[in-house]
């Protein structure tokens, strides 16, 4: 792996891993407050476009990071609806 | 601007703009809860590496997006310490 790619992969691991604590917290507390579904949809669109951009550039770090981010966005959206106040 | 770059810029605007609501909310409510300083430092490191990666690739969308993200991370860290419970 090129040094450049290694930097991209490390960057991706750091930024992607920062999504995990909030997900675990929401799972434990069975609530997703402080963030609107709209925000997750904006993030989903952004990460989706970044993934497409990564595919155009054939750039593994960008594709891998944003695939993981998309999974986290969808998971948070599911929790948001599952734990919404009825 | 190449179509590819336009996609990257749009992706960047979407993901970067998703940071703004939380910042405004923290400013209004004068508190930054649910996120640890450690998380912002991880994000700062990740965005810093992404920016370095963008510089290596000479990739404007990656550089621009992560510069904005770094500013937001630092701003949130400042709010986190300013509004911490004494």
From TrEMBL, chains A, B:
One of its GO terms (molecular function) is sugar transmembrane transporter activity. InterPro entries: SemiSWEET, SWEET_rpt. It comes from the Bacteria. One of its GO terms (cellular component) is membrane. Keywords: Membrane, Transmembrane, Transmembrane helix. The chain crosses the membrane at residues 6-24, 36-54, 60-79. This is MtN3 and saliva related transmembrane protein. It comes from Hufsiella ginkgonis.
